[in-house]
Each structure stands twice: as structure tokens, then as C-alpha cells.
Amino acid sequence: MAREATKGRKAVTTLVAWGIGLVIFFPILWTVLTSFKTEVEAVNPHPSFLFFDWTFENYRTVNERSDYFVHFANSSAIALGSTLLGLIIAIPAAWSMAFVPGKRTKDLLMWMLSTKMMPAVGVLVPIYMLARDSGLLDTRTGLIIVLTLVNLPIIVWMLYTYFKEIPGEILEAARMDGATLSSEILYVLTPMAVPGIASTLLLNIILAWNESFWTLNLTAANAAPLTAFIASYSSPEGLFYAKLSAASTMAIAPILILGWFSQKQLVRGLTFGAVK
Amino acid sequence: MGEIVLSKVMKSFGGVEIIKGIDLTIADGEFVVFVGPSGCGKSTLLRLIAGLEDVTSGTIAIDGRDATDLPPAKRGLAMVFQSYALYPHMSVRKNIAFPLRMAGLPAAEQQRKVEAAAKILNLTPYLERRPGQLSGGQRQRVAIGRAIVREPAAFLFDEPLSNLDAALRVSMRQEISELHQSLKTTMIYVTHDQVEAMTMADKIVVLNAGRIEQVGSPLDLYRSPANLFVAGFIGSPKMNFVEGAEAAKNGAHTLGIRPEHIDVTADGPWSGTVGICEHLGSDTFLKVEVAGVGTINVRAGGEVPLHHGDPIRLTPQPDKFHRFDSAGQAA
């Protein structure tokens, strides 16, 4: 029997959901609002919510002081590069785990996931030294390699769950039809898994875009992405909340817009396979 | 050409023997049906021939060439799966053309062959559709189309009709038989449905628990089953098995009598009571409790005026008796 949703209960649930949503979103909203305030207004102990003198001054200053587009280009290159490299490695890996599993496949998957449980700072020194000695410090290539490795477990897991949903008989049919392993993956598996690959791609771009530990520690100027751009406005410049907020807003805007337009795809990807 | 020879083929999965030493020769152009209850290994045997599974021991030769270690693509066989296994993201045209594309045929040649196959299978109006937009029967025809364009040495069918409804199954069965008559290519067909086996096969291979019980033409198996398993599996309704005094009187441990070989007569030696009576119009299936013999299935004529509880006398036809020894082998 369908559960009776009374009007009252529905209203309360809606209200609570909006409440939680606002609490989660509030820091971002506050940052965006602060970016339009003057520095004096930003540190006002009695802040006003909407009724202040709106100004674009902070954005102008931030753009004059540092080159947003260089950082934007770095962020894009790192996010896209690590995602594409990750997919190239993860698609065959997930294929073999999903369709020709061995005795230890489950253990291997768990082991891959367990690497995500280790604190990143634990390997900071060795990775920093490796990057320095191989000349990859403060280069896009270095960051692409590190972020690919950091996010690879998640990409493999997501693709694995997707591929598990694809009937093995279709791949066997391709094999009978004379497809080699690479054409089986290229012409049959990948097109069928496009929704899954797309949401994996989106999620990984977001993860790579927002990654700040490695991007801050392995870059200085040349390859610094938007995370470093924000960070440069925190301590050395003193407490300039409004400018920091303007920098943050500019850094998160692209990924927020991307996330907004792809939210359906993302939700579908993350819940795919939960019900048949 | 498509002669397939299996010698001493065995297959185990993790220590469990599924196929226990199969020797079988399938002649070129033959329509062979593997039949048996579920779990008897018939699908596994087909997959071994296809190359989708590796044999544990033994050899498989196709056209006199050892194919035991060849990958599926190199065996020159085409397979039609139970689930159709069409490529959902490709149109019917692209589905059928896929094996040709993999073989690197020129595009014009591909199109010519696809059009020809579509014409044979009445798929021409649907060439631009996706599999999701087709009915079950049409999807199965696309799967067959994808198999025939390759001009394979042999076709392998893995229970291809079991997802179709009863009426469609009968017409697709006839289509596949006609296809075999026109192509004259070796076909191996797996089914658990003995009606499909009897109607389509040149040769039936009855499998049970990973072994071949008997190989023969449909009527050979019907007329002279080698053992109790084959006797019980082939024929519908099932053969009656009588043991005890009645069997001993006829010189057998178990006496097999098919339901159609028992006549309803006024003065028959077996007297009993009608239990269940199924009137199909063309036939009447009776379940009769016979004193001293047991429950006996009888296939009587078209419109027999009998009902539940009626007394009845039966005469089995002695020349149609099947006699089995205590080991269950035909005596």
C-alpha cells in the first residue's frame, strides 16, 4: 500500500529539506555576497545580508593583481588532463575486473579503495622529492600524473559498477563476430557505457578541479591552478575578506556552472545500478 | 564446409566436472540438436565449440583443422544467443554489418550483404531502427541476420526461441528450418524443449549430467531409446514405466509403453478408473489408475466421451513395448 503523504507532513519535509540545503549552501552564498562588499563592510561585526553598497571593486583589484586566466588555464589543463589519462587507464582496468574477474579481483578493488583512506600528507615528502628529482615540480604534467593516480581508484570503481550492468553475452557476441579485444572495447563496450563514462568524467573533473592538497604543495607559480590563486589571497595579503571572496567566487564559478548543468547526469551516474 | 569433431572433450569449473568426456562427429550440413534437462551441460558444450570457454582436455576440430586453442573469432562460426545479444546503440543495419566491418570488408560490399540478409529475413523496413524499437521476433531475426552475413562454417544457436511466446516460437522454428534447407550449412542448436528437438533436427544428441546418453535421428530415439533417461525424455506425453509383476511377465525389469500405444477397448486386460481427463479436441490425454499396474498416461483419440471417475479398460500394444533391464538399459 502506498504510504499516505498528508499535506502537513509533506510541508514539514519540504521545509526541513530546504533548511538543510540552505545550511550547506550558506558558506558559498556568504562568500559570493562578501565578494560584492567593500573591505570595511566585509569585516562589519553586524553584517547586512543584502542591503549594502554593491561593488565590483574587488573583482577589478583581483584581476589587476593576479592573472586569473593563467590559473584558470592551469586548472582546466590539470582537471581535463588527469581525467582523460585516468579514463584511458581505468576503462581497460574496469573491463578486465568486470568481465574476466580473477580470484583476487574483489581484494584488488578493496585495496585500491583503501589507498584513498590513507592521509595524503603521509606520502607528501616522498612524492615531493620524486617530483623534484624528475623535474616535474611546478609543472602541469607533474600535477596531471599525481591527480590521475589520486583519483584512479574512484574512476575504476565507478566504471566497474557500470560495466557490471552490461550483459556479458553482448561482448561474447562481439567476440564471435570477429572483434578483437580493442575493437570490442572501442565499438561495443564504450558506446554502451557512455552515460557511465560521462558521469565518471564529470565527477572526476570536479574532484580534480577542487583538489587543493597536491596542487598547493607541488606548484609555485608556473603550474599554479585556481586553488593556489585563492590561497594567495589568504595569509600573505592580510585579512582582505572581500578580495579573498572575489577570488574564491571566480575560482568556483566554472565548476559550479558545470555541476549545475550536469546534475541530472551526475545523480544518475552515482545511483546507477541501485535498482534495475 | 563445416564438419565438427569433438574428441574426449572435458570441461571442469573449479574442480567440478561439467562435461565428462564427449566424443561426437557433426557432419557438414547437418542440423544437430543438443537436448537435455537444465544443468546437463548442453550450453557449456556449445560454448566450448564456440570458443567462449576453453576445454579442460580433449580436442575440437573444425573442417579437419584443430581449433581447440583458437579464439572464437578465428573459428569461423556464428552464434545466436538466447538474449539476442544485439548491440543496443547500433541500428539494425549496423548490427548486421558488424561482423563484416570487423572482417574489414569494403563498405559497399557490407551494404550489399546486409541488404541481401535483410531481404531473406524480412527486415528491410526495419534497417534504420534500433534493437529497442523491435519486437522479440524481429530482434531474433536480426541476431540471425548478423550470423548469416558472415557465411560461417556452422551456426550455433543457444536456446534462441525461449524468450518468445508460444505462437512466435512455432513460426520462428519453421523459419530456422527453412533457413537450414536453403543455406545447407551445419547448425548446432541447443534446447531443453524436446518438441523443438524432434521437429528440427537431423540428429539429436541427448545429454544428461555432462555425458551423451544417445545420438540418433528423432525417430530413432523415439522408436528405440537406449535407456530409461532417453525413453522418458523423448516423447510427449512422457512414456509410462511399469515395474513389478506386469514387467516381469513381459521379460523386463522395467516396461516402457508410450501413451499413444495404449488403446481404450471394451475388453482390455487392464482395468482402471479415469483420474484426469484433458480434452484438446484433436487428442484426449487421460491419466488412469490401473489396478496392479499404477498410474498410466494414455493418449486417446479426438473426442472420447470419458470423464473423471469413469471406469475404463485399456489394451497396451505388445509390439510397441520397450524393455529395460535393472540398470535402465534397453534390453
From TrEMBL, chain A:
Name the Gene3D superfamilies for this protein.
Answer: MetI-like
Q: What lineage is on file?
A: Bacteria, Pseudomonadati, Pseudomonadota, Alphaproteobacteria, Hyphomicrobiales
Q: Which UniProt keywords apply?
A: Cell membrane, Membrane, Transmembrane, Transmembrane helix, Transport
Stated name of the protein: Carbohydrate ABC transporter permease
- Compartment(s): Cell membrane
Claim: Transmembrane is one of the keywords in the record? yes
What broad class describes the main subcellular location of this protein?
membrane
Q: Which family does it belong to?
A: Belongs to the binding-protein-dependent transport system permease family.
The organism's place on the tree of life at top rank = Bacteria
Provide the ABC transmembrane type-1 domain boundaries: 72-262
Carries keyword Cell membrane?
A: yes
Cross-referenced InterPro entries, in alphabetical order?
BP-dep_ABC_trans_perm, MetI-like, MetI-like_sf
Q: TM spans, by residue? A: 12-33, 77-96, 108-131, 143-163, 184-207, 240-261
What is the topology of this protein in the membrane according to its UniProt annotation?
Multi-pass membrane protein
From TrEMBL, chain B:
Q: Which key words are in the record? A: ATP-binding, Nucleotide-binding, Transport
Q: SMART domains in the record, alphabetically?
A: AAA (SM00382)
Among InterPro entries, the record links this protein to: AAA+_ATPase, ABC_transporter-like_ATP-bd, ABC_transporter-like_CS, ABC_transpr_MalK-like, ABC_transpr_MalK/UgpC-like, Mo/tungstate-bd_C_term_dom, NA-bd_OB-fold, P-loop_NTPase
Q: Which Pfam families match?
A: ABC_tran, TOBE_2
Q: Which SUPFAM superfamilies match?
A: MOP-like (SSF50331), P-loop containing nucleoside triphosphate hydrolases (SSF52540)
Q: Which residues form the ABC transporter domain?
A: 4-234
Recall the GO molecular function terms of this protein's record. Answer: ATP binding
Span list, region Disordered: 307-331
State the Gene3D superfamilies in the record.
2.40.50.100, Nucleic acid-binding proteins (2.40.50.140), P-loop containing nucleotide triphosphate hydrolases (3.40.50.300)
Checking NCBIfam families in the record gives:
PRK11650.1 (NF008653)
The record's comment on protein family reads: Belongs to the ABC transporter superfamily.
Q: What is this protein called?
A: ABC transporter ATP-binding protein
- In its UniProt entry, the species of origin is given as Ancylobacter crimeensis
